[in-house]
């Protein structure tokens, strides 16, 4: 229960406060008493639900009388339940039961009713590839124009996959994508590089 509650706390901050998952989650996990397995589960829930947000919302909104009236906490609980059902292949009884049990009492009935309906509706016929891939319509349209249908869909599916971490020979833990940037620009030792897309992290 604690893992799901921590994940929802993070998702509420991301949704309601505009927080960045990669900035708030490490601190939240460090302050928790969760073991390594639960921390990994929280990380998957937060990043996965954030990544597949549009798809999760579509899955649950079909069964809400007025989706716009759902508050951030209720939305987060429904999203993590839908994410487990549709994208983690968690058995329905486990995903629904654990989410309902962990949710606040005021939301347990809503979560139970909506997530059971989501579970019985799977697999679904998505209204569009953009919803299925949880991307804005304009991004998919632009990629289709630039890359063609097959490459565009493949690129977005790859972007939705969890990134793997790699340990370099010097012991620095880093995504491969960050390392490929250096090769792509042809940087040499001693070169001065201006990173115009800087964010927390390293290359």
What's the domain count?
A: 3
Distance between the termini: 37 Å
Order of helices and strands: HHHHHHHHHHEEH
Here the CATH topology of the largest domain equals N-utilizing Substance Protein B Homolog, Chain A
* Structural class category: mainly alpha
How would you name the CATH homologous superfamily of the largest domain? NusB-like
CATH-scheme architecture of the largest domain: Orthogonal Bundle
Mean pLDDT: 92
- Taking all Cα atoms into account, the compactness measure Rg is 19 Å
What's the helical proportion of residues?
A: 55-70%
Main β sheet profile: 2 strands, antiparallel
Give the number of helices.
11
Q: Could you name the CATH class of the largest domain? A: Mainly Alpha
| Low-pLDDT segments, ≥5 res | none
Note the overall shape: globular
Give a verbal description of the structure.
- With 203 residues, this protein is mostly helical.
- The protein has three domains: 2-121, N-utilizing Substance Protein B Homolog, Chain A; 129-160, no CATH class; 164-203, no CATH class.
- It is built from eleven helices and two strands; from the N terminus they run ααααααααααββα.
- It has helices at 2-17, 21-31, 36-51, 53-61, 72-87, 92-102, 105-121, 129-132, 137-147, 149-160, 176-185; strands at 165-167, 173-175.
- Strands 1-2 form a two-stranded antiparallel sheet.
- α3 packs across α5.
């Amino acid at each position: 229960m604690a893992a799901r509650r921590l994940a929802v706390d993070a998702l509420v901050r991301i949704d309601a406060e505009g927080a960045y998952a990669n900035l708030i989650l490490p601190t939240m996990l460090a302050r928790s008493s969760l073991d390594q397995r639960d921390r990994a589960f929280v990380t998957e829930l937060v990043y996965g639900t954030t990544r597949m947000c549009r798809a999760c919302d579509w899955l649950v909104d079909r069964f809400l009388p007025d989706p716009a009236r759902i508050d951030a906490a209720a939305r987060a609980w429904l999203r993590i339940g839908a994410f487990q059902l549709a994208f983690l292949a968690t058995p329905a009884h486990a995903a629904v039961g654990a989410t309902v049990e962990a949710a606040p009492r005021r939301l347990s009935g809503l979560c139970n009713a909506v997530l059971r309906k989501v579970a019985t509706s799977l697999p679904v016929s998505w209204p569009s590839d953009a919803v299925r891939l949880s991307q804005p319509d304009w991004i998919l349209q632009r990629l289709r124009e630039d890359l063609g249908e097959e490459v565009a869909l493949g690129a977005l599916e790859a972007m939705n996959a969890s990134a793997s971490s790699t340990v370099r020979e010097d012991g620095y833990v880093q995504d491969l994508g960050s390392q490929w940037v250096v090769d792509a620009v042809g940087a040499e030792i001693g070169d001065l590089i201006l990173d115009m897309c800087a964010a927390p992290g390293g290359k």
